[in-house]
Predict the structure of Hydrogenase nickel incorporation protein HypB.
Amino acid sequence: MEKYKILEIKKSVFEDNDRQADLLREELKKDNTFLLNLMSSPGSGKTTTVLRTINALKDEMSIGVLEADIDSDVDANTVAKTGTKVIQLHTGGMCHLDAGMTKQGLSGLGTEEIDFVILENVGNLVCPAEFDTGASKNAMILSVPEGDDKPLKYPLMFSIVDVLLINKIDAMDYFDFDLDAVKERVKKLNPNIKVIPISAKAGEGIDEWADWIRTEVKNWSQK
């Protein structure tokens, strides 16, 4: 006779979240709203990149932003100054967003008249990679000061994103960072990944990044 039962909680939680994520994508498709899940470690330049992205595309499409943090509204205040509609999401100590949390944020934002939503996920290279948010596409930022070995240490994150932004390339001369090595490592994990070197601070590479978004938003609306 068994003394106890073993419940595979992790599997069931992920399966339930995946179902919610698929339903959310269907809803976004009906509204022709493209949701980009942007992930990175803290300090990589996510919010600066978001601001650059808004500036590059604000005259072409309606943009909304979901800012996810464990606490504080610093980033939401920063984005709000651009005039962009923004919702701050507090995760209550959780290190990631899931599809249910994302749906709550989108409900507060309202997607009927928004073409493009940026979800700035919680700063973390582990948990956010495990949870499908219902996004149309996933992107991540790796900043030069973090080092070129991150694909070796956090392979799941690099394997599930559609585009990798390598940020702070204006600081390349000050760090031991091998751009070619990063590209080789991420391509082994994810052959279809697009790699775009940028400097969110100086604006370098933002045009290519904006072009990628334009194409994806257009393709999403035509599917």
The mean pLDDT is 92.
